[in-house]
Design brief:
The complex is a heterodimer.
Chain A lengths: L1 H25 L3 E5 L6 H19 L3 E5 L7 H14 L4 E4 L4 H13 L4 E4 L3 H8 L3 E4 L2 H14 L4 E6 L5 H16 L3 E6 L8 H14 L5 E4 L2 H13 L7 E5 L3 H9 L4 E4 L2 H18 L8 E2 L3 E4 L3 H9 L4
Parallel strand pairs in A: 1-2, 1-3, 3-4, 4-5, 5-11, 6-7, 6-8, 8-9, 9-10
Antiparallel strand pairs in A: 10-12
Helix pairs in contact in A: 2-11, 3-4, 6-7, 8-9, 10-12
Chain B lengths: L1 H11 L13 H5 L3 H18 L1 H5 L1 H26 L7 H18 L4 H26 L3 H24 L3 E3 L4 H7 L2 E2 L3 E2 L1 H18 L1 H11 L1 H6 L4 H27 L1 E3 L5 H12 L11 H17 L10 H25 L11
Antiparallel strand pairs in B: 1-4, 2-3
The chains are: A alpha/beta, B mainly alpha.
Chain lengths: 326, 356
């Protein structure tokens, strides 16, 4: 009985979606984007990308609507509700991150069952996109980001890189350090991880002094990369205290204004950027092209990172940061 | 405890502690409560000088733990006074980032003169301390709960306002050479100038606790708050002053860290809550109040900093750092307790004055 009801609902929803899709065809694509809070510094860049891509959709009579939670206290269920809210408005396509698969996968499956084109972006990876039947994944993969950073180090002659992990044990930070290590090993060097205890977390001096100690202890270290932009500020002080600025090249995952200024001044070699703007921009553009013209990109997944910011492109990056896109 | 509190009550209305002690003999020095903390510190220093190698003993190695100790120590001193008076202040964990963000937003984001940012940050610390103190007095709710509430409230306020005002949770700050020299520079490329601020704070707090009536009032309040008030001590004023001093010191550390690291993050500082309490407890201050000394707090802070940073000079796998920190801290506290018990239960054979 239950299975039959489910089937009927699915057919009904599919029917509704089909009619809405045809009507949407006439006045352009109605795209719904599920994302973080718009005032979150990271998500404001994703939103800017989605909004900019939305201008193209608007030219053809379509629209892009951003749906974000009020807060992150109950992220999974709240995001699942947002997906259902989007679905109830007869969308031409939906973009969403798979933050909490347990809570959100059912809602995503309803989207696919209703015949609405879906792209997973920002988190979940291609695995989530395949599992849910989504068209594509647009975003970053932490291990690939680590590989990108490690390759850059390798091609610039670094042989022993310290990966400073202030959140040891977390999957994403461990993946970043592992990527660094694997890429450097390939170019004949090595990378060790420096896991810092929780009694150091959030205290830049404790982090800086720990990095200084590690650099002093092993004088073959010629590179230090931190898992966050804030930790790079500590690492910069550590390197100058250890008087190793000529030898030890600093880098970071993600970046902030202070880090960009360091790259410009030459005291930091590079930053690994996951380019959040592109996540919003590409996901919306891909869906707009599909909904209007049936375009489908064969490249799957679409990785927006790692982008490398170094002395060569730091000026352009700073201009982008001032515009709210970097 | 009670008899000690009564001694202090008697003293509160008479002369400060320092004027009552007789000439110290070697025996009385060994029985001083700080000896446990001193031995604890020497033990961990010895431990890391063996396992830490030449780098740990170099000036760079010493700077490693002195820099961490000086920032922690500036907060631990007023926290120690509060704990001696029978209170706790958890809100320092949010005060540090709140102060960092205040100066970074005012002087970094809006480009106001650095002195405006510094004064606003320190003023915020005093204001939060004042609110803490008034809430504790008026509500009679334990300060643990009151400051836990202000810890969260202030963290939320900092995050919310930072995002509204600067659109970011991380703000860059460029400060001039004078501000850098005073608050955020390294002497000889290694020692933070904060070290001198810590020494100044030690001298000030040491004077207050040992040579002023105010110090006696603090000890008496921690021993027995009701009797202290009955004896004519303005306990409300003392409580508010103590919370304002911890707010001020926490905001000082946040402010100087922002200048030192040229930036401020919303998610920082929480580790100062437990680290400051740990440092104070290692230093021999009782969690229940009424007992403690400035020398002890300083030694406790140094011990904690040595253990926390020394680990990175050793060849140990850093994954075990937290375990080793925990074990060494427990050993230091146990050693301390043994000596304090010895000091307190010692019965003088000849004269009564040897008791202190």
């Amino acid at each position: 009985m239950k299975a039959i009801t489910k089937l009927l609902t699915a057919i009904m929803l599919a029917g509704v979606a089909a009619t809405s899709a045809t009507s949407a065809m006439a006045d352009g694509a109605k795209i719904f984007v599920i994302g973080g809070k718009a005032d979150d510094p990271f998500w404001s860049k994703v939103k800017k990308g989605a909004d900019d891509a939305g201008k193209v959709a608007e030219l053809t009579g379509g629209s892009v609507t951003w749906l974000g939670p009020q807060n992150y206290d109950n992220l999974g269920p709240d995001a699942a509700k947002l997906i259902r809210t989007a679905l109830s408005q007869k969308p031409s396509a939906i973009v969403g991150p798979d933050w909490v698969p347990e809570a959100m996968d059912d809602a995503f499956k309803e989207v696919v069952a209703a015949g609405v084109p879906l792209i997973i972006y920002n988190s979940g990876g291609m695995d989530a996109a395949k599992r849910l039947g989504a068209m594509n994944y647009v975003g970053n993969e932490e291990y690939a980001a680590g590989l990108g950073g490690g390759t850059y180090y390798g091609s610039h002659g670094s042989k022993n890189v310290l990966c400073v992990n202030t959140l040891p044990g977390a999957t994403n930070t461990e993946d970043r350090c592992k990527g660094i290590a694997d890429a450097i090993t390939k170019s004949g060097g090595k990378s060790t991880q420096l896991p810092l205890p929780s009694s150091s977390f959030g205290n830049p001096t404790a982090v800086a002094e720990a990095i200084k100690a590690a650099v002093l202890k092993d004088n073959t270290i010629d590179g230090v990369i931190t898992i966050s932009a804030g930790d790079a500020n500590s690492a910069a002080n550590a390197i100058s205290q250890a008087n190793a600025g000529d030898k030890v090249k600093l880098a970071s995952f993600d970046m902030d204004e202070t880090g960009l200024q360091r790259i410009k001044a030459g005291t930091q070699m590079f930053a690994v950027d996951q380019q959040p703007y592109l996540q919003g921009y590409l996901a919306v553009s891909l869906l707009n092209g599909f909904a209007n013209y049936g375009l489908d990109l064969p490249t799957k997944p679409v990785l927006t990172g790692p982008g490398i910011v170094d002395a060569a492109n730091v000026d352009a990056t700073m201009a982008g940061a001032a515009a709210g896109a970097r | 405890m009670t008899s000690q509190a009564h001694d202090q009550l008697a003293a509160a209305t008479t002369a400060p502690l320092s004027q009552r002690s007789s000439m110290p003999s070697i025996g009385s020095l060994v029985r001083r409560p700080e000896v446990g903390s001193l031995i604890g510190m020497i033990a961990v220093l010895f431990f890391f000088s063996i396992f830490g190698g030449a780098n740990f003993m170099s000036s760079g190695g010493a700077a490693s733990w002195l820099n961490v100790a000086s920032e922690l120590g500036i907060i631990a001193l007023p926290i120690g006074l509060l704990m001696i008076a029978g209170h706790l202040d958890l809100s320092v964990g949010s005060m540090v980032p709140a102060s960092s963000m205040t100066i970074a937003i005012l002087s970094g984001h809006y480009g106001l003169p650095i002195i405006v940012g510094i004064l606003a940050a320190l003023g915020l610390g005093l204001a939060v301390g004042f609110v803490n103190g008034v809430l504790v007095i008026r509500t009679k709710v334990p300060s643990f709960v009151v400051t836990l509430a202000t810890l969260f409230a202030l963290a939320g306020l900092t995050l919310g306002l930072s995002v509204i005002l600067s659109g970011s949770t991380s703000v860059a700050l460029k400060s001039g050479p004078i501000a850098k020299l005073l608050f955020g520079d390294y002497l000889g490329g290694k020692f933070e100038v904060t070290l001198f601020w810590w020494i100044a704070a030690i001298l000030i707090v040491g004077f207050i606790l040992n040579f002023s009536r105010f110090g006696n009032w603090i000890l008496a309040m921690g021993g027995d708050a009701v009797s202290a008030r009955n004896a004519g001590i303005p306990t409300d004023r003392v409580t508010i002053a103590l919370f304002m001093s911890s707010g001020l010191c926490a905001s000082f550390v946040g402010m100087s860290q922002a200048i030192l690291y040229n930036s401020a993050q919303v998610a920082a500082g929480q580790s100062f809550i437990f680290n400051s309490i740990i440092a104070v407890v290692i230093g021999g201050v009782l969690l229940t109040g009424g007992y403690g000394s400035v020398v002890g707090i300083v030694l406790g802070t140094l011990t904690f900093a040595i253990v926390n940073q020394g680990i990175f000079y050793t060849g140990f796998d850093a994954n075990w750092a937290s375990l080793i920190i925990g074990v060494l801290l427990l050993a230091a506290v146990l050693m301390n307790n043994t000596f304090r018990t010895m000091a307190l239960t010692y019965a003088p054979r000849t004269k009564l004055s040897a008791r202190r």
